[in-house]
Amino acid sequence: MTVRLLTVDGRQFELPVTLRWRILRTGGVPCDEMEAVCLYDGKLGAILPLCHRFAAYEGTEAVLRGVVDEYAAEVTKEGVLLRLSGRGMAALLIDNEAEAESYQQATLSEILRRHAGPYVPYEKRRELTGSGVYRVNSGSSQWRAVSGFTELAGGFAPHMTALGVLRASPLKGSGRRLSVEAASVAGCTVRERRYGVLSEVLVKDKSGGRTETVRHEDFLRRGGCRRQVLYMPRRSSGEAMRYTGAYQIQKSRALARQVELTLPGAFQAQPGDIADLRYPPLGLMGAYDVVEAESRGGPAGTLTTVVMEAID
Question: Is 286 strand, coil or helix?
Fold first, then answer.
């Protein structure tokens, strides 16, 4: 693993040989992450305060670009070490707050230009046009301003590539198709989280004249019981109210059922990949969406931990 730092005045510096490292790829929220530990070179003391971006490479391939968040030099039994951490470029959209604003018949191009363009490059697969008024609430991040629109108008959340490009298109299925057999798996965990999953959402407009109930039927059949009440702006359409309820249910069930695999080697998968898995010890057979991948390396070698969801 090689890490290069970029200073605010455009200079580049390569860190000394990395002893340990970790890269987490999610494609969205929570943000991609990078941590690296290397031997400290005293010459870095004058450079590090000016470093604001990083690029991590596996061989000659860039595997993550992002924002430098923190660094620390410390004396240890291993010597004088530098610890560096940062996040993917989505951090610029997450950290920056949007102004409260209302759009009438907004388009995806307009939302991307206003809320993503000042911070990161972006791509869109097709144009989207909102129906009615789209509001960016006070306190929302620029990420939320974009994702709120794509979720409402297109039914999906945007995602960030490892190289820092915002893609206004679905993450699932955007990567490679992988085949994973039991012999290549170093470890496997299957878990289900019930706490926090919504069984029902009651959506009411603020005037109190209309309500919509959205039910999570599968969770209800399995004994789930967790209701949420939401209040919409006055004169909200029934379609918008039903969508809001369905979105809250979908959000609550995200990663409720997980398969976690440990695979030898680094960067064996990334978010957006589809894995065809055959793992008889736990009865896992079928196609899974990769939603998170963490690669790490050190003296003991390299591993990839992959979090997946079964494709419905």
Answer: strand
Given a cut of 70, whether residue 255 has pLDDT beyond it is no
Name the maximum alpha-carbon separation found in the chain: 69
Cα distances (angstroms) measured from residue 107 to each of 1, 28, 141, 146, 147: 41, 21, 19, 11, 13
Alpha-carbon distance 151 to 168, whole Å?
A: 10
Q: Which range is least confidently modeled, 115-129, 180-194, 204-218, 255-269?
A: 204-218
DSSP character string of 206-271: TTSS-EEEEE-HHHHHTT---EEEEEEPTT--HHHHHHHHHHHHHHHHTTSEEEEEEEESS-S--T
Q: How far apart are CA 168 and CA 115, in angstroms?
A: 12
pTM listed for this prediction: 0.86
Q: Are 122 and 112 in contact (CB under 8 A)?
A: yes
Q: What pLDDT score does 235 carry?
A: 67
Residues 181-197: tens digit of each pLDDT: 999 999 999 988 888 88
DSSP 129: B
Those residues whose C-beta lies under 8 Å from the C-beta of residue 97, and which sit 6 or more positions away, are 139, 140, 141, 142
Tokens of 98: 């949007």
pLDDT of 159 > 90? The answer is yes
126-156: pLDDT as tens digits: 999 988 889 898 999 999 999 999 988 998 9
Q: Using CA atoms, how far apart are residues 286 and 283, in angstroms rounded to an integer?
A: 10
The candidate with the shortest Cα–Cα distance to 267, out of 221, 305, 300, 210, is: 305
The conformation of residue 115, written as its DSSP 8-state character, comes to H
What tokens were used for 310? 């079964």
Element holding 186 (H helix, E strand): none
CA distance 274 to 229: 35
